[in-house]
Specification:
The complex is a heterodimer.
Chain A: E1 11-20, H1 29-36, E2 47-52, E3 62-68, H2 71-84, E4 86-92, E5 106-113, H3 127-141, E6 145-149, E7 154-159, H4 163-169, E8 179-187, E9 200-202, E10 205-211, H5 216-224, H6 235-249, H7 254-261, H8 266-271, H9 275-287, E11 297-303, E12 306-311, E13 320-324, E14 327-331, H10 334-341, E15 346-349, E16 356-359, H11 362-371
Antiparallel strand pairs in A: 1-8, 1-14, 2-7, 2-8, 3-5, 3-6, 4-5, 9-10, 10-11, 11-12, 12-16, 13-14, 13-15
Helix pairs in contact in A: 1-10, 5-6
Chain B: E1 10-14, H1 24-28, E2 34-36, E3 43-45, H2 55-59, E4 65-69, H3 82-94, E5 99-100, E6 115-117, E7 138-140, E8 163-165, E9 169-173, H4 181-194, E10 198-199, E11 216-220, H5 229-233, E12 237-241, E13 252-254, H6 261-267, E14 275-277, H7 287-300, E15 307-312, H8 317-326, E16 331-335, E17 344-345, H9 346-351, H10 356-369, E18 377-381, H11 387-396, E19 400-403, H12 405-411, H13 433-436, H14 441-465, E20 481-483, H15 488-494, E21 497-498
Parallel strand pairs in B: 9-10, 9-19, 10-11, 11-12, 12-15, 15-16, 16-18, 18-19, 20-21
Antiparallel strand pairs in B: 1-4, 2-3, 5-17, 6-20, 7-8, 13-14
The chains are: A alpha+beta, B alpha/beta.
């Protein structure tokens, strides 16, 4: 595996997400078909998938997907991990030899719990804060090992290649999930590296992103001063930390978090006739100036309860939404949605700066949780 | 009186073919350099009195005059140059401290000129300010770290008082007394009409400026001149002045000659009496004393206004700024070694303090590291010449910039550095009614508004070029800066990469 670069590489991208709102699980075929019509949007230097609902047998444990540079990197992690977390189970991530896919890292997954004793004296008592700091520690200090994803009952599968061979390499047709999000990448550097592919993930939040944040420096410093050191030099990493910070730690709703990141322009706020809303928007912009994402972007964020799509305030990158039957779709191109299941019942391009949130139906989520 | 040994600084060249001996130069000169012979009407110059203010040159109707700085006089010496020798001659004659005005004129490193801004190419589009709104709007004051909502989704979090700026440029502290009422009026009205603020300095708020109170940052300095409940009440923010870049560590002195009836009424001191500001505030001998004054002012204003603390950028500016934030300051203003003044000892001005760029780089980084950067806004001052300097300061982490000298140049100042004499021929740094009427506030307001507008246009263009439509996305975005001609250590302090990386 190539080494981590120490600078930021711009990239353009194609993205797609498919959610079954009833929680019914399906395999990778549909999302791969969606991605295959957007080949122009990638250049074979990075693609990836995130899927939610794949580990029902380990639903209560955090699934750490690990990319290690080599066996030594994995060994170092193996040595460290039991000192920080309780490892319930671990195994190699199954792969198959695939033409065009090479230089793969050592891929492993650990199902972990946070030991009670680790939370003694910690206020507020949120094991996820502990997990985040543990992940940050691994990414920074455990040489040659990176955490690709860390949520419950979900996982990120990514690497250097086009989406179809990446899916084949990871044997994704063997997994069933209720939400699939995928990404293909057009990085502007030559040697792609596995860790640089999308999605980026922290805990339940996984991000795929098409665009380049002009505000990266501001956003990076904002999350860093809130305890999320940025080690991967990508916009998506910053956005994933932003969701964790805003939604989990600041307890904002997803809509509010998106509002913080893509708030209306002052021109529109000044004209807002609803004074309560005007007050809210002013407060958001004043408080979350460091969270405002600027420059072109279209983001799909996956989380335990569904997925959200949102674009920059000028809509400089495309993102379409659609609904058909129990399924909701988001994709860079509407053609990708049609490719899966023909004409959708409802479809629309996402408005600049206005998030579209697709959620699992609540009773289904409850029953899913119960069955686990 | 013995012959003065101070060499003349300027050479006044009068083109005899062009001069019509109209006497304009003699009436414009306030320093006694240009004279007209009452007998024959001929004009002549006493070059030793010339300060190089360029007033006569500018107003000469036939363009007959030129005033140029003299070259080195006598045998060349790299160390004992004319400036050094002139200073000694002045002191040998007067026995006094060398005084001067404006900011340091030594060739200190100008880090602004060693920093380059970024622009978008291909991978992210630049944004056209003619097509898209470009936001310069800036809020100064403490920000919460998050917003909390009640069950109904109504925000529970209350924001502390904020200053709202349409352009992140504020007119720096210049007191009525050090500058004329016409100049103060021009600054106040231009600020109000441009959506920004002016700073009263420690001179109080003249009654004719009271109507611009909502755009006034009123200073509370060590002399407490003009500080009344009404003064604090009729303001947008209150600034505790601890230090000034042009004279860190020392107080201020407005000579009695400048204390006219009006200045006396505004400052609440006897007419003709010297106005002495002590070096320290005599109620602030430590950081906890500063905290008490901050909260005393918050109490006095009912927690309705942000409280700013202005300090000079000195060696340990980082813990001082951090202490001010922890003491409850909503705004920390820092003034660098190039900061201006109406009167300051030359040795202090030119030798005490550090450049604002380095202070800003270090303070912003430390406040972020401590997780308290949002608790106060940073306003920086000290030699901001143009919109690019402002953009670079914001990219380094400033919220806004104070401009003093640039605004005065906009009003006509030609930087002769003689503000302390009270004889400003441009009607700016003087209380002499014969001189102050040269500055028409109507024109002054227009010129200052033009200046802010022009800088605003340039800032929007640069912002769009970087692929941003909000100044929020530049603040602290050091990725937008690259350095040249700097040591590794300087780059590290500024937190920027060298150009090419």
């Amino acid at each position: 595996m190539h080494r981590l670069p120490d600078f930021k590489i711009p990239a353009a991208c194609g993205t797609a997400g498919i959610l079954d709102r009833t929680g019914r699980r399906f395999n990778s075929e549909d999302v791969v078909r969606a991605m295959s019509v957007m080949r122009e949007r990638g250049n074979g230097l990075g693609a990836g998938f995130v899927v939610y609902g794949i580990y029902p047998e380990h639903a209560e444990e955090y699934a750490l997907h690990i990319m290690a540079m080599d066996q030594a990197g994995l060994d170092r992690l193996r040595e460290y991990l039991p000192t920080a977390l309780e490892v319930v189970h671990d195994e190699e991530i199954p792969t198959r030899p695939t033409p065009t896919i090479h230089d793969e890292p050592v891929l492993w997954r650990f199902f972990v719990r946070v030991p009670e004793k680790r939370l003694v004296g910690v206020e507020p008592r949120d094991e996820r804060d502990y997990l985040v700091s543990t992940i940050m520690f691994i990414n920074q200090e455990v040489e040659g090992a990176y955490v690709a994803s860390s949520g419950k009952n979900m996982g990120v599968f990514k690497g250097v290649g086009y989406p179809e061979p990446i899916a084949e390499f990871y044997r994704l047709e063997e997994y069933l999930g209720h939400l699939w999000v995928s990404h293909t990448r057009f990085p502007t550097n030559t040697g792609g590296w596995w860790g640089g592919a999308h999605p980026f993930d922290v805990l339940e939040w996984s991000i795929v992103h098409n665009g380049e944040l002009s505000s990266y420096g501001v956003n990076k410093r904002y999350v860093e001063s809130n305890g999320y050191p940025c080690t991967l030099f990508t916009d998506s990493e910053v956005i994933s930390y932003m969701f964790d910070l805003l939604c989990r730690r600041h307890k904002l709703s997803i809509e509010m978090a998106c509002l913080a990141m893509a708030c209306p322009e002052w021109e529109d706020i000044d004209r807002e006739p609803d004074l309560t809303r005007k007050h809210l928007l002013t407060l958001m912009r004043q408080t979350y100036a460091g969270a405002l994402l600027n420059g072109p972007f279209a983001v799909i964020a996956g989380y335990d309860g569904g997925m959200v799509g949102f674009c920059d305030r000028l809509k400089l990158r495309p993102l379409a939404a659609a609904i058909k039957g129990d399924r909701s779709y988001l994709a860079s191109e509407e053609a990708a949605i049609w490719a899966v299941d023909g004409e959708p019942e409802e479809s629309w391009p996402i408005d600049a700066g206005k998030p579209v949130v697709f959620t699992l139906e609540e009773e289904k989520v409850a029953s899913l949780a119960h069955s686990c | 009186m013995p012959l003065s040994l101070i060499p003349a600084e300027f050479n006044v060249q009068r083109d005899a073919d062009l001069c019509i001996e109209c006497g304009v130069c003699t009436r414009q000169c306030a320093h006694g350099c240009q004279n007209i012979d009452p007998e024959d009407g001929s004009v002549s110059s006493d070059e030793k009195l010339c300060v190089g203010c360029q007033r006569c040159v500018t107003l000469c109707p036939t363009g007959a005059l030129q005033v140029v700085q003299r070259a080195e006089q006598g045998r060349y010496h790299a160390v004992w140059n004319t400036g050094a020798r002139r200073a000694i001659a002045r002191q040998a004659e007067s026995g006094g401290m060398l005084l001067t005005g404006m900011g340091a004129d030594k060739p200190f490193p100008l880090y602004w000129d060693r920093l380059f801004l970024n622009a978008s190419q291909v991978t992210n589009p630049s944004i056209d300010p003619l097509r898209e709104p470009m936001e310069l709007r800036t809020f100064l004051g403490a920000k919460p770290d998050k917003i909390e909502f009640d069950q109904q989704g109504k925000p529970l979090t209350k924001l502390s008082p904020q200053l709202e700026l349409e352009i992140p440029v504020i007119f720096s502290a210049m007191s009525y007394g050090s500058i004329s009422l016409s100049a103060a009026m021009s600054l106040a009205r231009a600020a109000a009409e441009s959506g920004t603020y002016f700073n009263t300095g420690e001179g109080g708020l003249h009654r004719s400026l009271a109507q611009y109170g909502s755009n006034a940052i009123v200073q509370v300095a060590s002399g407490r001149f003009g500080v009344t409940p009404a003064y604090l009440e009729n303001s947008a923010a209150v600034e505790i002045k601890i230090g000034q870049g042009a004279k860190p560590g020392i107080g201020g002195h407005l000579p009695g000659e400048k204390v006219s009836a009006d200045v006396s009424a505004t400052r609440m001191i006897p007419q003709g009496a010297d106005a002495i500001s002590p070096a320290p505030h005599h109620d602030i001998y430590s950081i906890e004393d500063l905290k008490q004054l901050i909260y005393a002012l918050k109490e006095a204003t009912g927690y309705s206004k942000p409280i700013s603390v202005k300090i000079a950028a000195v060696h340990n500016v980082v813990p001082i700024a951090s202490g001010a934030v922890r003491a409850g300051a909503d705004i920390v203003a820092m003034d660098g070694v190039r900061g201006g003044s109406g009167a300051t000892p030359t040795m202090i001005r030119d030798n005490v303090g550090i450049p604002i760029e380095l202070a800003l780089g270090a303070v912003d980084a430390q406040l972020r590291k401590d997780g308290i950067r949002h608790r106060a806004s940073l306003v920086v001052a000290g030699g901001f010449r143009n919109s690019a300097d402002v953009m670079k300061a914001i990219a380094l982490g400033a919220d806004a910039v104070y401009i003093g000298t640039a605004a005065l140049i906009g009003l006509g100042c030609h930087m002769c550095q003689k503000c302390y004499t009270g004889k400003c021929t441009w009607g700016i740094a003087t209380q002499d009614p014969y001189l102050t009427k040269r500055l028409n506030p109507e024109i002054g307001v227009r010129r200052l508004k033009n200046l802010l507008r022009a800088w605003g246009l340039e800032m929007k263009e640069m912002l769009g070029g970087m692929g941003m439509n909000s100044i929020d996305s530049l603040r602290g975005n050091r990725e937008m800066l690259r350095g040249i001609d700097m040591t590794e250590q300087e780059l590290e302090i500024l937190g920027v990469l060298p150009a090419g990386r």
